[in-house]
Amino acid sequence: MKPQPNKGCDSCGKPMLFSLNIDSDKTGPLDVRAVVYVVRGDINAEGKAAQTAGKFLEQCEVIRMKDGREIKPDDLAFCVSHFATCPTPGRFSRG
């Protein structure tokens, strides 16, 4: 499932999706158009190959979590924090 942006960045205008980070319990902006790569094995190995997360998910039938739950690849999307991709991050409000 492709994420649909719900707002443009006030600083740069790029489309973003606000989402709750379940690790920090904080809401933050995600860049839904940044390309995310999957590297298997030792990421520091010489000549390591990578592929886009989208192509990786196309090859998966199911993702099995450690607790036994199974997730269909179509129910996943990979995004990058917009704080990492915004060309004008200094204009973000921290208050």
Number of strands: 8
How many H/I helices?
2
C-alpha geometry: globular
Largest sheet: 4 strands, antiparallel
Q: Please tell me how large the radius of gyration is.
A: 16 Å
Whole-number tally of structural domains: 1
Share of residues in helices: 10-25%
Distance linking N and C termini: 33 Å
The ordered string of helix (H) and strand (E) elements is EEEEEHEEEH
Strand residues, percent: 25-35%
Q: Give average pLDDT, whole number.
A: 85
Estimated structural class: mainly beta
**Major sheet strand order:** 1-2-3-8
Task: Describe the structure in your own words.
With 95 residues, the chain is mainly beta. The protein has one domain (7-91). The protein is built from 2 helices and 8 strands. It has helices spanning 53-58, 82-85; strands at residues 7-8, 15-21, 26-31, 37-39, 50-52, 63-64, 70-71, 80-81. The strands form 3 sheets. It has a 4-stranded antiparallel β-sheet. A hairpin with a 6-residue loop joins strand 1 (7-8) and strand 2 (15-21). The N and C termini lie far apart (33 Å). The model has no long low-confidence stretch (mean pLDDT 85).
Short précis:
The chain has 95 residues and is mainly beta. The protein is built from 2 helices and 8 strands.
Question: Any chance you could write out the topology, listing elements then pairs?
Answer:
Elements: E1 7-8, E2 15-21, E3 26-31, E4 37-39, E5 50-52, H1 53-58, E6 63-64, E7 70-71, E8 80-81, H2 82-85
